[in-house]
Amino acid sequence: MHDPVELLETLIAIPSVNPMGRDVSGPEFGEARMTAFLEDWFATLGVATEKVEVLPGRFNVLARYDAGPDRPTILLDAHQDTVPVDGMTIPPFEPAIQEGKLFGRGACDVKGGMAAMLAAFARLVTQRPAGAANVVMSCSCEEEAEALGVKDLVKLWSEPGRGIASLKIAPDVAVVAEPTDLDVVVAHRGATRWKLRTTGRACHSSRPDDGVNAIYKMSQVLSGLQKFVAHLKETIPAHPLCGPATISVGRIEGGLSVNTVPDRCEIEIDRRVIPGEDGFAVIAETEAFLRKNIDVDFEMLPPWITGISLSDEHNSKLADRMLESVAAVAGPHKKVGVAYGTNASRIAASGVPSIVCGPGSINQAHTESEWIDIEELRQAAEIYYRFCAGE
């Protein structure tokens, strides 16, 4: 089964929902069933796979096509997990084709890209083109929440003793599958996310002056963060490809009941970093601004993800090569920058030139009726093959 459309239908029908930090359980959560399928699928090709456990029961899966010791090595990476299916208006795990589109959770992000890469990989194995590179297919886990899969992946070549048979040393280049409309992403932002907490003193709401309202304190923090938005625009020039540095509060939680003055309030902050910014230092910069501009105490909690951006400084030649493959199949496309983040930034940070290219539009990712254009899916499989085959 090497047809990318059939492959994608199969992948959609295998739930691999990232819990996204929620206390949930069930067969649809995690990548276990997807990992098992991939092992079996590679075995039918006669290709050995290696599993690397990243979290309990959650694995990166790697397979290698060997063209020869004198050939460069290309890493193809696509993540196994999807975002949750809450609020979807279509059956998420029942692939359906209508009017040239294939619907289902992950169709666009990023099981479509994975299906295209798997189809190209299978073709390499069966046809063994003369000019091919060595190719390592990485099906990484846990991308959507904390990027833990790719964080562990890069340790295979960046930490002594971590190498495995399929990837003993760093690959020469990497191509990451995400929905880019077959354009080549050479720069993107990263995301640093952390919680900020205010504390107070609880009391009965009939006598609020006996307590200290943590939500009221947080309101001043939020006002300060709104001022910080303008500060960012004034002090950090936007990147020409992937736009400005931004900050956003996406979640707030506080209080026990309406008749109790709250003694705690927390917000979750999303800070998008652009090339040239330090994803950890931006937390201290935010804190310094707030302490200078507001008059309440607060606590910054440790980040659960630290942003690493993708810079276009070291991937121009790689992008040009990919654009040649794209043009041969789908006509002229372009180098672009995007606002979202991908596994490519962490691979690039380890010293491996990296780009992002795949079928589908980011406008469809994570949507209630996710779909991918079938023609573009087939084109992507041909593009990946040509790129790896040296055609």
Task: Write a structural description.
The chain has 391 residues and is of the alpha/beta class. It folds into two domains: 4-188 and 309-389, Aminopeptidase; 192-300, Alpha-Beta Plaits (2-Layer Sandwich), CATH 3.30.70.360. It is built from nine helices and 17 strands. It has helices at residues 4-12, 32-44, 111-127, 148-158, 214-235, 281-293, 316-330, 344-349, 374-389, and strands at 49-55, 58-65, 73-79, 96-98, 101-103, 134-140, 173-176, 184-188, 190-199, 203-204, 246-254, 260-261, 264-273, 299-300, 335-338, 354-356, 371-373. A hairpin with a 2-residue loop joins β1 (49-55) and β2 (58-65). α1 packs across α3 (111-127), α3 (111-127) packs across α9 and α5 (214-235) crosses α6 (281-293). The protein is globular, with a radius of gyration of 23 Å.
List keywords for this structure.
Peptidase_M20A; acetylornithine deacetylase activity; 6-stranded mixed sheet; alpha/beta; Alpha-Beta Plaits; 391 residues; Aminopeptidase; 2 domains; Acetylornithine deacetylase; 4-stranded antiparallel sheet
Topology, element by element:
Layout: H1 4-12, H2 32-44, E1 49-55, E2 58-65, E3 73-79, E4 96-98, E5 101-103, H3 111-127, E6 134-140, H4 148-158, E7 173-176, E8 184-188, E9 190-199, E10 203-204, H5 214-235, E11 246-254, E12 260-261, E13 264-273, H6 281-293, E14 299-300, H7 316-330, E15 335-338, H8 344-349, E16 354-356, E17 371-373, H9 374-389
Parallel strand pairs: 3-6, 3-7, 7-16, 8-15
Antiparallel strand pairs: 1-2, 2-6, 4-5, 5-17, 9-13, 9-14, 10-12, 11-13
Helix pairs in contact: 1-3, 3-9, 5-6, 7-9
